[in-house]
Specification:
With 244 residues, the protein is of the alpha/beta class. It is built from 9 helices and 10 strands. The chain has a domain of 169 residues: 2-enoyl-CoA Hydratase, Chain A, domain 1 (Alpha-Beta Complex). The longest helix has 34 residues. The protein is globular and about 55 Å long.
């Protein structure tokens, strides 16, 4: 069974992260399923835009610590989202953690319900937001990122909008997205593709310049003794040994 659900309505393909039992964590299977679904959307002339959403109460909890994907596979997925010649819209009604913020930032437009929460939790398990920085840093406020990267604090949808991680937020995310999707349906495929290339050129330059180094950093951190201690503590629901 694929961990990606798919529906279509008037040219908008909705891809749903559908592994609620793992809080839609980025497993090898989920990453591979999303890569395949996006490739099919790219090749399908009937798809005008893509909505990326989720089942369950969490959009994405970050890397699956029991079945982590390779860092280069995550980089490939993030680049695929950025480079897809059709707009990708994130629709979030739950929580977003760690690598899930990479998915969010790789989308062109991101909307969330007011009750959604966000956190870069990597530092709390002994790693860092390495490969997800490729789309995150070019698109969000640097002073805010310094705080949330370093502390792992949770923040709400209003703050995520203020610092540039979200485009919009509201009590009814579908009502908020209705004019956005209407606008995408009214736009020409050629116009959408050209406009998206203008918007993503600098983000893709970041991928070209920094992806190899950040992939190596991620692999090194995840294989470290401190990360093993942190991930074990997280899975056992206890404080890591460095907590004061």
């Amino acid at each position: 069974m694929t961990p990606i659900g798919r529906t279509r309505a008037r040219g908008v393909e909705t891809l749903s992260l559908d592994s609620a039992e793992t809080r839609n964590a980025l497993s090898a299977a989920l990453v591979g399923g999303l890569v395949d679904a996006l490739a099919e959307c790219a090749a399908d002339t009937g798809v005008r835009a893509v909505v990326l959403t989720h089942t369950g109460g969490t959009f994405c909890a970050g890397a699956d610590l029991r079945d982590p994907p390779r860092p280069d596979a995550v980089v490939g997925l993030l680049r695929q989202l950025v480079a897809l010649d059709k707009p990708v819209v994130a629709r979030v009604t739950g929580h977003v953690r760690a690598g899930g913020l990479g998915l969010l930032s790789a989308c062109d437009i991101a909307a969330a319900a007011s009750e959604a929460t966000f956190a870069f939790t990597e530092v709390r398990i002994g790693v860092a937001p390495a490969v997800i920085s490729l789309p995150v840093i070019p698109r969000a406020d640097p002073r805010a990122l310094a705080r949330y990267y370093l502390t792992g604090e949770r923040f709400d949808a209003a703050e995520a909008t203020r610092i540039g991680l979200l485009t919009l937020a509201g009590d009814d995310v579908d009502a908020a997205l209705a004019p956005v999707l209407d606008g995408l349906r009214r736009a020409s495929p050629q116009g959408l593709a050209a406009a998206k290339r203008l918007l993503t050129a600098r983000v893709l330059e970041t991928f070209d310049r920094e992806a190899a180094d950040l992939t190596a950093l991620s692999a090194r951190l995840f294989s470290s003794a401190q990360a093993r201690d942190g991930m074990t503590a997280f899975l056992e629901r206890r404080d890591a040994p460095w907590v004061l």
